[in-house]
Structure formats: C-alpha cells, structure tokens
Model the fold of this input.
Amino acid sequence: MRMRSLRHLLSGAFAVSLLSTACHPAQDHAPRWGKAAAGVKHAGDTTTARARTPARKAAALFPVAPPPFSDGVFPCSECHGTTDVVNRTPHAVEFHEDIVLRHDEKNRWCLDCHDAQNRDKLHLADGRLVDFTESYRLCGQCHGPTLRNWKAGEHGKRTGSWSGEKQYLLCANCHNPHSPGFKPIKPKPAPVRQEAIK
Amino acid sequence: MRELPTLPMPAPEPPAEGYTRREALVMGLFALAAAATTSGCAADKLALDDFVAKHFKDLSPAELQERLAQMEKRYSESYGKPVKVSATPAQEGVLFGYALDLSRCIGCRKCVYGCVEENNQSRDPQTHWITVLEMDKEDGVNLQNANAFYDHETVPAPGKFYMPVACQQCENPPCVKVCPVEATWREPDGIVVIDYDWCIGCRNCIAGCPYGARRFNWGTPGIPKDELNPVTEYLGNRPRQRGVVEKCTFCIQRVRQGLYPKCVEVCPVGARKFGNLLDPESEIRYIIENKRVYILKEELNTQPKFFYYYGL
Done:
C-alpha cells in the first residue's frame, strides 16, 4: 500500500473564486408588489441606503434581503404626510388599485399592518412601529409557529454560507403579503427519455 | 499497486527503470499505438498521462498540484476561458446533511437545471443528476407509480406531490462496495465522490445504487463553451469524459468553500435545507430533531445523509 496520509495537503485549494454566487438567484425571481398606479411620480427606492445607517442595522435582528418594494413606491411618505387626516374605518381605497387583498380580507385591511401616521413603517397589534426590514415580526403575530421555524431556518430560504454569513429572505420576499398563497408556476422541461437519447 | 485479491500468480517482477510494471506495460502499448498512427503525438501524450494517472488518493501533494495544473491547462484550452480545478480537503468536524421538505416542493425542476449549470452536466446528450418524481398524494411515497416525465402547464398539479431524488450520500454506500477498482469512495465529510480518471465505466455502481442516482456518460459530454462553470473540483464538477460515471456531490466545489449547494439557492419555495449534522445549532439538526423525517428506502440500511421531511 502506498502512503495516503498526504493526500489532501493542498496549498492553493482555498483560492477558488466564488464566481458562481455573483448573482443572487432569489432576487431574479423575487416578486414585487405594492406597485403604485401608473403616472404617479415617486422617489427612488432608498431602502438600501437607509439600511446602512447604524440605527437600522442595530434594529435588524436577522440579516434579511431587502423588502421587495416596487420601483419608486418607497418611501411612502413621499405622498402620505404625517399630518394627513385618515379615515380609519375600513373602506375601499381608490389608489393602489393593483393590490388585491386575499389575506383574511374579511377581517383585515390596509391600516391593520401599515401605520396611518408613519407610512414608512408597519405597526404591530400593540401599536409599536416596525421597519419593513423587520416585517417578520408583524407576520409572526398570527403565524407564530411559522416564525419560530423561520428563525430556526426550517421555513423559508437562506442563501450564502451554511457555516458563516447567510442571508434570510423576508416573508414578503416569497409571499405577497397582500395575497400570500403561492401561485402555480410553469415547470422546467421534462427530462429526455432514455430511449430518445441517441 | 493497490492490494486487491488476486489469483495465485508468480511473484511480480521489480519495476523497470522507475516505472511500475503496469505503467511500463501501458507505456509500451501506447508507444506501439503511437507508432502505428500518423496523428500528432500531443493527443497521445495526454491520453497516456490520463491512462497512467494515479488514483487520486495515491497522488503525492506535488503530483496532485501537477495534475491539477495539467487539467486546468487542458480545460482552459478546450473551453476558451480560465478554468480553475481545486482539490479542497474536507473540513474537520463536518458531516454534511441535506433535508428536503416534501410538503413544500412544487416540482418546478429549477433545481434540476440549476444543478446542470453549476455542475457542468452534459447538455447533449442530456444528463440530469436530479430526478423529480411526481406521485399521488392519496398513494403516498410509492416509487412504482412515480412519474419523472410529467409535463403540466403549471405545477403543482392537483392531487400530486413531488420528490426530487439525487445521490443520498449514504453512510453505508452500496455503490462504493461494488466498485471493483475503488474509483468511488466516501469522504470524511460524508460526500461520496468519484475519481473520473480511475473509473473504468463498468457501471456496477449504477446497478448497486438503490436510488438510481448515478449517471453514465454514454457519449462525449456536450457543454457549450460559454456555459461551462469554470470553478471546479477534481472530485466534483470538472468536465467529465465519455465512459465514466458521475453523480451529485452536494456541490462539493461550493460546500467545501462554505457555500450552500446550488439547488438550495435556486429552490423557489425554500424546500431544500443543508448544513453540518455535527453542529447542534444548524438548521439541518433542527429539522431532524423537530420534524417528521422520511428516509428513502430506509430498510436497506444505506443510512443516507439525505433526509426527506414534512414541514407542514
């Protein structure tokens, strides 16, 4: 028998470049919701820039993907002022008509999650404000076991490193919060049958 | 030479001029073959290098570096871009485990094609390491009534569930037992790997695998040059040759660098989970400890490191 003790000694082995992860696959397919009506001018999405401030960083308990805002819809305060008079009785909303609520819509409406005074935030049932980057806290109020599983890594999807830094997708990165059920999708082609391979 | 059970034979002659008997014999044969052809010698040299190449485990560090450089040069030339071939060792204290949520998989086959791109599977003739089986919810896991060729407009189809099957990375792998030349073995981190240069293409392992997870290259693998993933591993996704067996390696080129396998990252419903079974904090351990786990063909005592589970 030959000596095999040196078989894995390799100095250059760690120098592999990680080209294949350059693009984040989940982002390609990330659905985008909360689209504003066409023709209305909105400021650009500033979430990324805002997330870099220390206060925001400290607030985020988990390293999450950016919330899936439609282009130009955030910050909401571009249109909604803090002193606006708000009708808090559930009623049909004339703006944002592309949003169809299919999420316990008989019992809930916009302002159960979105904050009337500070539109750039969401609020919990007890009135505490949460950022869109922490929306899982809001979802977890009703979906407790799911939040527990998400924190443990069983529910949802993580990307990055199994041993180190990973990124969690927010609930809203996969589930449209206004209509959270998954819609059927087109499958990739079936494999070629063996007898058809020449 | 490796010690294999042999018939009683005369004692082997000492190696001539630094070559083993096998190498000397093979080189002699090749010299004859080369003399008999009018083709250039470069190709013959490469073929000779491959043919007398040692088993991966028998390469000294220097020989391994030389071999890697040889491969990089060859692949870079044939695919027209720099190709990196590594031989990353297994990490200490790591045993890879995989979990797949049968209650979430929708059968979209994104994992199948993500795997093909990441692992340089042949596009033509087609090779897929992952087979997604469609079965009736009413029937449960019943492989006899499974269909891999479903072709619906949209998935999931009503009343159906989906079970993607690839190499189960068995702790007790039948494929390894039946290989007559030790061209496939289980690494310390649990990944069952193949030395494509040592494989003789006998396909015993394909017959031995109870999961149908191994694939044979009947033809020369066809990969468009621009689609080749240039980040490769010796025992993983480097381009294969005709006549050798290949299979899933948990994306050895990714997981040994700390990354999730490709199929985990492309799954649109988060049904695929991966981690270190020896790390009590890992998501894979949480799943095994808290969810209903299903092991495919558990009764065969193959002890897979691939766990199906029901998240809902």
